[in-house]
Write a structure and sequence with these properties.
Largest sheet: 8 strands, mixed
Strand content: 25-35%
Structural class: alpha+beta
Helix content: 10-25%
Number of strands: 40
Length: 715
């Protein structure tokens, strides 16, 4: 790909028709790239320069317009008050036993970041172990992960700033709460793993940026290191590296008995992995290729002596549990065979396999003995999502969290021997879950594929086509969308809104074939599934086009951008967040190259044609009436760089022929979303819901809601 012209010449900056909203003037250039002999215009290339003065001025002007419009919406104060009131409830994480202590995180309600506590007993007094709120005044420094030594005496913990994927890892003495001098940098995505003796840990990191190279551009050449406590990072030993394979990433895991280092090798977000290992008891451990060639997904689960257990989709697209004896590495023993449900995760606790499955996109947990015999199923309180279930093989108890669309996350203690659960912590939120219900429907996509969808709403709503509806989707990277509680979504349903979540192809709800059918040359299936969901909601009178909004984040932002450029007449409003919107240059920034496993590559002629056909930025058409759109992103996003959203916003504003606004909300001191402080989350939802209240004409619904909330408060 080569540019045919530079960015210096300016072309017409006025859209074909006078806009209903006066947008900041955005310079258009005649920049053109050539892909496989085809010229493709990129008039807003200059907006990729995030720190350029012109880009910063554009950001300020766009934010000024957006807040000028949003600030006129009367419902904002009521939204802020209600979101704040509902968010202000005590939230507990899932406890884990670490040595002689329990460790658990807790948020008192409106704390920007949850605090990590240690307890001598479950009913004991919590003592602060790590409080991220003390690390910054605005709450934008977040905890990125924790890994405890085998004896629980020390914890390695990572922090990230302003939502960045980059993490700095430190080591804290658990007893004293004091940090050691150790500090590890250039890490993201992979936590360390301690050696059994607690003297150090293995970790993977990237090379520091060369002089003159931006931090955001560091995205290749990962190596696996060993860090010995008390030594500077510069003295760390390289354990494994492949300079001939610069895109290989490494994740290490030391077995519970301390004997082996199991190394998982990945290429970006490609689901297939390779497995290597080292025998740490050897005088000079060598690296052995156990499962080379990236033939299937392999995830290390646990071990017993020379027997290693893996969760894999080799020969089982919905997943099964396999044993490999290192004395006979070419043999496979299937311990837990594939079932009709989709296996999503396995842990070894209480000398049992605790296997979490998805059945129609909701959790099921099954308990197996280590020989693979099914012992029991974990009885769950309803249709929802389970997380946790971690621990050591010798533990006799574990903890898990359960949540659903109308049930805040409740934490349970599970006696593995007796098979009995009891509530550890149940939150008290100011609403009645019995006022709401969730149903699961099925509809047909464009090619006849049956797709399930969750629909959650307040009981008693009329199916007359007038319900404001928020259709949320993702559809990518083998990630499932399962029932989960959200204060923001609860407020939406309180106002009379319908919350709909379809399980699109590309996701992980139904195994690897379901995932692959929404990738690369088949990515259009995902958009067809989402469009069909919208058509189902309208046809069955859940809503109508003027009342229908679509939303999604990241890959879901791409989803929203694609469907509103393909079917702009179908939607009343759109909320694309931190989206991948320029599909011809996504692999040029930060970790974007890693997404080629799902999207394909513009450098491949056939995949270029597919990418160009749906790339939101390249499919904006002048003279088209687009739905009211509020794009939202963050200036510190180093995963999906904000230029995607900047360029898409500029193109939509230029092309808009309808009366609805196209706005962009650019958060400062924020990243892709992880670790965002509570205060910023509330303000973001005030803006997003406020925009939909205004554009979907929800005045009647909001007045009734505000009156009900006021009466409830008076009681």
């Amino acid at each position: 790909m080569e540019p045919t012209d530079g960015d210096s010449a300016s072309v017409g900056s006025e859209p074909a028709a006078a806009p209903a909203f006066v947008y900041p003037q955005t310079r258009r250039t005649n920049h053109v790239d050539v892909y496989h002999g085809i010229e493709v215009a990129d008039p807003y290339r200059w907006l990729e320069k995030n720190d350029d003065d012109a880009t910063r001025a554009w950001v300020e002007a766009q934010n000024a317009l957006t807040h000028q419009v949003l600030d006129t919406i009367e419902a904002r104060d009521a939204l802020r008050n209600r979101l704040t009131a509902l968010w202000n409830y005590e939230r507990w994480g899932v406890p884990t036993r670490r040595g002689e202590l329990f460790v658990v995180d807790r948020n008192d309600g409106l704390q920007n970041q949850s605090v990590v506590y240690k307890l001598k007993r479950l009913d004991g007094t919590p003592e602060v172990l790590i409080d991220p709120n003390t690390l910054s005044e605005d709450g934008t420094v977040a905890l990125a992960g924790m890994v405890f030594s085998h004896d629980g005496k020390r914890v390695a913990y990572g922090v990230s700033e302003a939502g960045s994927d980059w993490e700095v890892w430190k080591v804290r003495d658990v007893a004293t709460g004091e940090d050691l001098e150790d500090e590890i940098r250039w890490i993201k995505f992979n936590p360390p793993t301690w050696t059994h003796d607690g003297k150090g840990f293995f970790y993977s990191r990237y090379e520091p940026p060369k002089k003159g190279k931006a931090l955001a551009d560091v995205n290749e050449k990962q190596k696996l290191y060993y860090h010995r406590l008390g030594q500077p990072q510069s003295a760390d030993e390289v354990v494994y590296a492949r300079p001939d394979e610069p895109k290989w990433g490494f994740s290490g895991k030391v077995t519970d008995d301390g004997r082996y280092l199991v190394i998982t090798v990945k290429i970006g977000t490609e689901p297939r992995t390779s497995i290597l290992y080292q025998d740490l008891r050897a005088a000079k451990p060598s690296t052995v290729e156990l499962l080379p060639g990236f033939t299937a997904r392999w995830r290390f689960v646990g071990s017993s002596g020379t027997k290693l257990w893996f969760f894999t989709d080799e020969g089982a697209p919905r997943g099964h549990i396999v044993q490999i004896d290192l004395r006979r590495p070419s043999e496979r023993t299937v311990l837990v065979p594939q079932s009709e449900d989709t296996l999503r995760g396995v842990s070894v606790v209480g000398n049992r396999f605790l296997a979490e499955y998805l059945h129609d996109a909701a959790s099921r947990v099954r308990v197996f003995r280590l020989d693979g015999k099914h012992e029991r199923d974990l009885e769950l309180p309803g249709l929802g999502t389970v997380s946790g279930l971690t621990g050591k093989p010798s533990d006799k108890e574990t903890f898990y969290a359960f949540t659903s669309f109308t049930r805040p996350t409740t934490v349970y203690r599970y006696d593995i021997v007796k098979g009995v659960s009891e509530v550890f912590r149940e939150p008290k939120v100011g609403f009645d879950p019995e006022d709401y219900e969730t149903e699961q429907v099925r509809y047909r996509s464009a090619d006849g594929t049956e797709v399930p969808m969750f629909i959650a709403y307040k009981k008693g709503i009329a199916r007359d086509g007038n319900n404001p509806t928020y259709l949320y989707g993702y559809g990518g990277f083998n990630i499932p969308l399962t029932p989960s509680f959200s204060v923001a979504n609860l407020v939406w349903m309180e106002m009379g809104g319908v919350h709909a979540v379809p399980n699109l192809r590309g996701g992980g709800e139904f195994g690897e074939q379901w995932h692959l059918s929404g990738t690369r040359l088949h990515k259009q299936n995902v958009f067809d599934d989402f469009i069909a969901a919208a058509e189902y909601l309208v046809a069955n009178q859940w809503t109508s086009t003027p009342k229908l909004a679509v939303g999604g984040r990241s890959n879901g932002g791409l989803l929203v951008g694609a469907v509103i450029t393909q079917r702009p007449e179908l939607f009343g409003a759109a909320l694309p967040g931190v989206g991948v919107l320029d599909m011809l240059r996504f692999n040029k920034f930060t970790i974007g190259w890693a997404w080629e496993s799902d999207y394909g590559s513009p450098q491949n002629a056939e995949e270029f044609a597919a990418l160009r056909a749906y790339s939101p930025y390249h499919n904006v058409r002048e003279g088209t009436a687009y739905p009211a759109t509020l794009i939202y992103t963050a200036d510190h996003d180093d995963r999906v760089v904000p230029a995607h959203s900047y360029k898409f916003a500029a193109a939509l504003q230029h092309a808009q022929a309808g009366d609805d606004p196209v706005l962009i909300r650019i958060d400062t001191r924020a990243g892709h979303g992880a670790g965002k402080p509570t205060s910023k989350r509330i303000e973001e939802w005030v803006d997003l819901w406020g925009f939909l209240v205004d554009r979907l004409d929800m005045k009647t619904e909001v007045e009734q809601w505000a009156s009900t909330v006021a009466k409830r408060g008076a009681r």
